[in-house]
Amino acid sequence: MQRVESVLSKLHCYAGSFDGKPSCKEASPKWLYRKANWTWKLILLVALGLSGMYICILGVEKRVMYQKAILSMASGNKVGTTRPCSELNLVDGLFLHHPQPRTFDRKECSCLPVHNFVIFSMQRSGSGWFETLLNSHPNISSHGEVFSVDGRRESASTITRTLDTLYNLDWISSASKNECTAAVGLKWMLNQGVMEYKKEIADYLKDNSVSVIFLFRKNILRRYVSILANSFDRVAKQLNGTHLAHVHSKEEAEVLEAYKPVVNLTSLIPYLERVEEIIDDACSSFKETRHMIFFYEDLVVNPRKELRKAQKFLGVNPLKLESKHVKIHTRPLHGQIENWDDLNEYLKGTRYEIFLKGKDYG
């Protein structure tokens, strides 16, 4: 029996498929090798699967870190800051950010995206009126002439630090909407450091996806007359000893409108030429940014149409906007200038003659 078992142990036996008798054949060493090969193949397959899973997980983690970095750069925060939202939206070419203010909690509006903007303009071009109209929208915060303070524009670095604070919703003013701000910006006069640091500012605006609104006057002669009248009141203080650049009643407007300045003819044309140069330079310097140009005269003639365009440009729902500002100079130009006859004769035949004729607006 032991001899039979010894022989059988050297054979590969299986039950016959017909007669039930064992059928045996000599075990081949190749079968043993084949069994070993399948074992190693299984181990290799498992190892490859685990390696693939690890690579996928690592790739996802890197992608998440990259997305966080993009979000942080877009909102001006350091990489690694906890984000209330995980996505940077691009809608119709409009970049929407998710700032995380340090001074307050956005609460239920933490995932409401915010659009950054700036209004570039010049004094006495209707920018004060335009900004109060925008600020009557419940989701727009425009913080006024932030850079009227010299210390905030003494260098490119102080300018960018100020802008970082403002676009992170940490700038506090009467225009602050706090939690549910959907568009945040400021009014920036071209003589408040814009042209001195135009390259650095243009780079900042592009890097931070800030949209630009240009607001100018077509009739720059009217603007000049308004500047002369405002400069006079700055000294005369005609309203009960107080200087007001903007008024909220017809009575106040009538007091200021009564003054008619004398225009210096010698310096007038060089002044108008310089204003045109500044406007052209500004438009050229910031042409690579997302921008739109508005004119004060168009706003006066058709405020509803122009304000709707502005709101759509800022990515907010268009609403009826209101302002308490009252227009000061409503008379034709010949009724606002003391030496009108001399001025009229002086500008005849020049390209600025057009400012003397035609409708006041439109």
From TrEMBL:
Pfam families: Sulfotransfer_1 (PF00685)
InterPro entries: Nod_factor_sulfotransferase, P-loop_NTPase, Sulfotransferase_dom
Keywords: Chloroplast, Membrane, Plastid, Transferase, Transmembrane, Transmembrane helix
Enzyme nomenclature, EC number: 2.8.2.-
A GO molecular-function descriptor: sulfotransferase activity
Transmembrane parts of this sequence: 38-60
Sulfotransferase domain mapped to chain residues: 117-319
Signal peptide: none
Family, similarity comment: Belongs to the sulfotransferase 1 family.
Protein's UniProt name: Sulfotransferase
